Amino acid sequence: MTLPEHLTLKNPTDVPLDSLVRFVRSYEETITGASTCSREDILLETGIPGYRDNSWCLTDAADEVVAWAALTVRGGGTADCALTVLPGEHGDAAARALLHRLLNRADELGEEQDTYYSVSVGGVLSGDTVVPRVLEQDGFVRSATFGQYDIDLRAAPLPPVLPGNGRIRTAGWASDAEVMHALHLRNRSKGPKTESLEHFRAMLEQLGAAGGVALVLELAGRPAGYVLAQEGGGEGRVIEMGVAPASRGLGIGLALVTAVLAELRALGSARALMAMDTAEIRDHEGLRRILAIQGERAVSQYFKQTA
Predict the structure, then answer these.
(1) Which residue, 67, 107, 126, 207, could crosslink 212 as a Cys pair with Cβ 3.0–4.6 Å?
(2) Could you tell me what percent of the chain has a pLDDT over 70?
(3) What value does the mean pLDDT take over residues 71-75?
(4) What is the dihedral of CA 33, 37, 39, 43, to 10 degrees?
(5) Are 113 and 181 found together in one domain?
């Protein structure tokens, strides 16, 4: 697919990290009026196994990033992708060019492994006028929408309210990897699942090396839920949470959230960002009552069955 003459295709590993951070922050500010992206967020994204071979940037004449795409295979039948494009005169062309590369790469990987991959594209902010239109024109449908909450941690944290026979403990990055992976696969979130235990371990190792937080909630000694988070530069991120289906409705999600936010506050975070879908916490109004939510935005995921 032909690119506009002033745009250059690059591998993101050849682009300075700060340039990617500026790009994502500019995208967020353009769409929502506020930015939340940090260096730690980009480091997590660029640390995914296989990132170099499955990602692309477009830069303009000033060598600034204007579009970014990446693909991840997590061991299942879906290639999970991100596609971020600044709106503007050539936004549609940039989005189509990178989407074309994502779809072609998914086909190539399928041929290499004698399978086929459906494709999902996540992280699309509500209010984006470019990416949803390009995806829908190519046959994608919106499959899930998540709420992303900006939480003020300057107030004293609330203690987690545990169900009977419940306790929360710090998880071991290596010793609890299989436990958390099993919960990850069984939770009802519509977000991407990492089917491969090896890939899940690699993510945990990366998060642990970056000073992340991992908590497991047990009921009568049996794991019923977990949460992963990271602190950096005074801002926290609740990265992932899962609750076993058989343990839903007991307040485990809210207990994990309040516990991990207290951990982030103790590590120096003044605010935290948390993305949740309707499958992870039933009582969203209860969440708003007990947490100091100072901002909220919607993030969508799109899906295309390719065969």
Answers:
(1) 207
(2) 95
(3) 85
(4) -150
(5) no
Neighbours of 105 (CB within 10 A): 22
Run of H or E residues at 143: strand 141-152
How far, in Å, CA of 73 to CA of 199, rounded? 9
Classify residue 2 by its DSSP letter: P
Which of 144, 174, 193 terminates a domain? The answer is: 144
Looking at the predicted structure, is the pLDDT value of residue 191 above 80?
A: no
Specify the higher pLDDT residue, 231 or 161: 231
Q: How far is C-alpha 4 from the chain's CA centre?
A: 30
pLDDT at residue 44, as a whole number: 79
Residue 306 clears pLDDT 70, i.e. is over it: no
Instruction: Tell me, yes or no, whether 80 and 43 share the same domain.
Output: yes
2 in any annotated domain: no
Whole-number Å distance between alpha carbons of 294 and 150? 6
Q: 164 and 278 share a domain?
A: yes
